[in-house]
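Below sits the subject:

***
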Amino acid sequence: MNEKKITELTKESLEHLDKIYQNIVGKCELDDIVGYFSLKTSLRPDRRLQIAHEGSLTKAIYVHLQTRSWLMEPRGIKYFGGSLAINDADIRALKTVATHSITTVMSKPERAVDEVFSISDREKLSEAIRSMRSCIGV
């Protein structure tokens, strides 16, 4: 596929992205989804909470759907976060437990966000993608 590179945000480019998105809806099974990545320009406190909340909610929805689909041996999913700059407080805060994983005594607690990346340039992004792929076994 020879797609034209999007260099500016216009109504046409947004419509084009929406058309691409519409073409992939319904094209995979639940177990084909292996991970999510949330990228923020900053991790001010509300953004930091947003990533942890998104990770926890995404993993809870996945577990709910796996039970509804009778998926007996799910692959599981990973949730990754990234920002232009990450500090120790961000890393500690994002180690919070995913709430769905503490609902029964039989559940093993898991992190809401599996790994956090500092992404300040293309090379850092490439490193993060390699790390995420390795983590999910792709």
